[in-house]
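Exercise 4. Each item below gives a protein and its sequence. For each, produce the structure-token representation.

Item: PTS galactitol transporter subunit IIC (Bacillus mesophilum).
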Amino acid sequence: MAVLQWFVDLGASVMLPILLFIFGIILGTKPAKAFKAGLTVGIGFVGLNLVIGLLTNSLGPAAKAMVDNFGFQLSTIDVGWPAAAAISYGTALGSLAIPLGIGLNVVLLLAGLTKTLDVDIWDYWHCAFTGSLVYVLTGNFALGLYTIAIHLVVIFFLGDLIAKDIEKFYGFPKITFPHGASAPSYLVAKPLNWVFDRIPGFNKLEANPETIQKKIGIFGDSTVMGVLIGVVIGFLAGYSVSEVMQLAVQTGAVMMLMPRMVSLLMEGLSPISEAASEFVKRRMPGRDLYIGMDSALSVGHPAVLSASLIIVPITLFLAVILPGNTVLPFGDLATIPFLVCLMTPVFRGNIIRTVVAGTIYMAVGLLIASWAAPLITEAALAANFDMAGNSSISALVDGAVWTTFIFVGLAQVLSWGGITIIGVIAFAGLIYLNKIKPKREAKLNDDIGANL
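Answer:
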């Protein structure tokens, strides 16, 4: 267990290259090519983290300035996802998420119940998070572990479900995002998109980055949009002219640099993805295989970043006006792209739809994060987390994600039965996607062929 914890503590930029090198060798890639691919992915993650750090370091002070400027007073501080991850992996229960996730993934792959080969094992902390909250709520270690297992099954199901849309919109072949914070929003975006399609006038609005740039020229360029959004956020923060200009250039830099870091990641992933496809064709003919990766690959898309930067000030104002909310958004404001990045493919890059849906999502999420705050605070104390003088903490990632409410709420009301209900639905979804649906499609193709 100590060795596993040491490996996890290496972080994604070191852990992923090692895992991808091992997978590459297993899949038949030449060692030199597998090593270069893994190293390129690691360097891509370093670059991506630097850009996200730039966004955090620029938005964080701006958010604090907005809070001070408008006199917001809320009792619970959003400590951010790094703190939530540390809390999740800071207990014996949470540290079991990774071996449990690897074991379940292998079993489901061998049984043909998932197409997702999830190498993003560090992000199993999202499942450890819900398991830890259930343990805090019930005091039942076994139930907490069962929650982690079922949550893992849920993210493998979501990985299979969203893969086609990811390939179609982002252009990432055989890549999926079984990410505990990002994937759940996909299931919210689907019904919202159905509603949006039926609202007269609204359903005609085309607002993807390409359309916007055609209509308003240079002001529709994603980098220029980043600059303009930075100006607005700086103005709301009460910054001086020089500070507004600095923030504007920093947000513009994020818009330009993020897609380039993602391109570097994809450059490294391509050989592994191709090897996986060849391996499946040889060993498992007729089956697809998706490489499960961190949704950080998607947050560099101009539509995601543009919508997310607009949602930042909206989230702050929601926090103040929303009855029942106690959470002051802070640590995870720069992480909003991760919460909406899998809404954007459903809306085909429409920024207006993403902002509207993201606003609804964040409004509900703030209430969930407020509801979960006592449990998150107790879990932090149990993990010996430094509270930095705060008496109540929460996090938008994963405290504001609806799966947290479903898992913890059903565990509170129905105990083992509640978590089992979620498990049955998730397994039914996997069976449908990987057993029933392919047979129906094959039969349909046969019938069409017979009629030609």
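Check: The two ends are 60 Å apart (CA to CA).
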